[in-house]
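Dear H.,

Thanks for agreeing to be a second pair of eyes. The structure we're designing against is below in token form, covering all 211 positions.
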């Protein structure tokens, strides 16, 4: 019986930043009562992610166009902000950067495929750069940390992924971004599903024990 109580206690409580246990009510709040909505949202993300995996080109172009919208909005707000800062010596540069954002957005709007090709090439280069940095960091930590091997492995994987993208470029230009976004949606959705299950379990414990 004591073992059962200890098990329930371990499930009921989590460790706060100061090492003190927090009651489940303070951890989940009202999420336990409304876990179904979070579960539904998670399932929706998973379904949308799976659908996106089946149409990576359309997902890539949609993502690129959305990115262009953000660029355009950012450029407009930056120019507006520049004219509000009268007397500032950096106003001209502020306006020029805003105009570059708008021009870049216009180029992508005019030819989303070209935008996706450019962004994919940049993505491949960034993966390789990140991989090299991870490898250098792992070698520096080799004598100080036992986990340097995982960092080295992650660096190698990043380089191989970046190289694969660039070697198959431009064929990868219309696929990679959409696939990555789809995978992120699926992972995001599953994280919500598991969080909802944890909240449901916590709510049952709170109801039964008043934790």
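And this is the sequence the design step returned. I haven't edited it by hand at all.
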């Amino acid at each position: 019986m004591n073992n059962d109580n200890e098990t329930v206690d371990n499930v009921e409580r989590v460790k706060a930043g100061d090492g003190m246990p927090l009651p489940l009510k303070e951890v989940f709040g009202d999420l336990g009562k409304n876990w179904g909505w979070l579960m539904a949202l998670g399932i929706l993300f998973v379904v949308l992610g799976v659908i996106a995996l089946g149409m990576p080109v359309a997902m890539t172009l949609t993502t690129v166009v959305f990115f262009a919208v953000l660029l355009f909005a950012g450029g407009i707000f930056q120019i507006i902000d520049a004219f509000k800062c009268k007397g500032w010596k950096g106003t001209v540069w502020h306006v020029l950067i805003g105009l570059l954002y708008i021009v870049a957005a216009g180029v992508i709007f005019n030819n989303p495929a070209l935008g996706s090709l450019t962004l994919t090439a940049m993505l491949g280069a960034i993966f390789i750069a990140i991989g090299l940095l991870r490898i250098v960091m792992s070698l520096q930590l080799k004598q100080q940390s036992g986990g340097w091997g995982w960092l080295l492995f992650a660096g190698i994987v990043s380089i191989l992924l970046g190289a694969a993208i660039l070697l198959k470029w431009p064929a990868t230009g219309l696929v990679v971004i959409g696939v990555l976004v789809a995978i992120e949606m699926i992972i995001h959705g599953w994280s919500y599903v598991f969080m909802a299950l944890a909240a449901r379990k916590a709510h049952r414990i709170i109801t039964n024990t008043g934790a």
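Two observations from my side: Residues 176-209 form the longest helix (34 residues). Helices lie at 2-12, 24-28, 35-54, 56-84, 91-110, 112-140, 148-167, 176-209.

Warmly,
E.
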